[in-house]
Amino acid sequence: MKRMKKLSLVLAGIMLLGTLGAASASAMNxxxxxxxxxxxxxxxxxRESMQALVDPDNPRGGVPSPSLEGYPEGTTYIYRSPNxxxxxxATRMNTNLLVFTDQKFENKEDAFAYLxxxxxxxxxxxxxxxxxxxxxxxxxxxxxxxxxxxxxxxxMYNSSTIDFRYYGGFSYRYVIGIDGGATFLNDYIASEMDxxxxxxxxxxxxxxxxxxxxxxxxxxxxxxxxxxxxxxxxYVKANGAEAYTRSGDIExxxxxQFPLRKVVCKTVEDIDCKALIEExxxxxxxxxxxxxxxxxxxYSAGTPFKGYGNDEAPYSLCERDAIISDGTEGVIGKTxxxxxxxxxxxxRFADIPALTGExxxxxxxxxxxxVLDGTAPEHSIPLWLSNHGGGDDPIxxxxxxxxxxxxxxxxxxxxxxxxxSMYAGRFGGGDDPVPMCKALCAIxxxxxxxxxxxxxxxxxxxxxxxxxxxxxxxxxxxxGLFAAAIPMSAAGYEGxxxxxxxxxxxxxxxxxxxxxxxLGGAFNTAEMTISTAYQDTMNRFLAYDNMEPLTFDFEKYPxxxxxxxxxxxxxxxxxxxxHTWFQCxxxxxxxxxxxxxxxxxxxxxxxxxxxxxxxxxxxxxxETMAIEYDPxx
Length: 633
Hints:
Layout: H1 2-6, E1 39-42, H2 43-54, E2 76-80, E3 95-101, H3 108-117, H4 120-127, E4 129-134, H5 143-157, H6 162-167, E5 172-178, H7 180-189, H8 193-196, E6 201-205, E7 222-225, H9 229-238, E8 243-247, E9 250-254, E10 262-266, H10 273-283, E11 288-291, E12 316-319, E13 331-334, E14 339-345, E15 362-368, H11 369-372, E16 381-387, H12 394-400, H13 403-410, E17 413-418, H14 434-450, E18 454-464, H15 466-477, E19 484-488, H16 497-500, E20 510-517, E21 523-524, E22 529-530, H17 532-544, E23 566-572, E24 576-585, E25 588-600, H18 605-615, E26 618-620, E27 627-629
Parallel strand pairs: 3-4, 3-5, 5-6, 6-7, 7-10, 16-17, 16-18, 18-19, 19-20, 20-25
Antiparallel strand pairs: 1-2, 2-4, 8-9, 9-10, 11-12, 13-14, 14-15, 15-17, 21-22, 23-24, 24-25, 26-27
Helix pairs in contact: 14-15
């Protein structure tokens, strides 16, 4: 129990900002970790100590969630790993493991020893996040335990309370049921849309399901140990898993169109829970995440706390390429696909300060391992400049916009700076936007100079919301640095006269994105049309690219106002219809707008795929500086 002695209930000196409250945070000295020691508490202790643990210096920084008032005592234990992700939306990167067992524990030491014996403490310490160990209220799980589940789920997802910051995260949320805990998850959680559609992966060891009365309410990746045929069939049906493969004691049914929707069945004689947890975690959990992209209140299991921030369903099930830490100094971690993630805090760009003295000090590099070990040929790896949104974290942005998973599959690099308080205007950088323009371009030059494998002809730039505005800052300062730009749900920036003159001899392909419930600067939800700002931006870049301006007619062409030279329609992730209109030059789609129906203003991994699938065809000739297009890539 040496580790238990290291656990502390006191956490001093943490500054943890709310998701949107970080607008006034300093770009200098930025960190996305909170530096806490590990803690292990009962739920009752957590309710008492939460404020001091999470935000001791800011009593007004959040209140405990009222959803946990009356939570059953003596049933739940919470472990929080050291150095949680936090500050801005980085909190969402914490892994949540919920463990349900019908075992009872005499004290906290026994409960901790149980988790340690299952290997879960080691797993969560490497992953970073929390474990909630839940035991039944009575002798066995039942109706009352379902309401307790609802109470905890509501607290974990309510990003306006300190509970959210205490537990940390909701994108990486996985549940483990053992024996009676598995039966409970089958009968009460998997059967309710509001519950199961937020879970990114399930491990069910033993247990049964009352299949005559229950149905699995939605698709969910699941690992079943010794299931009955009837139980497996319920999950297969919910996942639409029509394909099948078997190897040894493992059978896998999966949906061919959406491979994350899978059912893994394993038959064993001797159950080794620790080994099974490790297998499910590495083979299933870390490959999937859930993203909140739907309007709040849909499919809510109850109404007392309906409408809380991010307390919504269903969450989108999306690909994940988890960053796994191995303790290497100076390295945040490495993905299974060989993308190495490092943090850089330097004064390299101190000579480009904002009016407030702020400069770009912190950035994150995502490099394929072949770039760092020297095996990638010179100028063979594309580079993305990835710009986070307001209140977002650079790593969290790259993950939730879908570029992190794609980088491993497609072998491209990314650099993601933290620049927020350099942003001119209400974000604190003063009235001069030019320093941020120059800093964003300077970091691209730094990457190209530092890593010979990166291809200067294939540099792309994107960003969401505030990051869309940052994208405009970069391309107005030095358009010749980029082969294509994708400002998403973008804040506007037109550039000064000197910057506009950059386009006298240069062209740049650009794709704007928006959605039904986007911010007003991108989409006019009342009129159901792209915004006036987007219309003006399209015409401005058509002029830059020496193309004819557009006249928008929304009566004739709803939403876009144009018919477009090229139009595509596709269903993203089986969820949201996407429409894209391009104006073409000599057959090349140069200026476009992409609209996704019924989507809120939120990061969505399919946006990264849209960006890459279009941008990858473009390169910039380094001798002539002309844009080149290859439709066959």
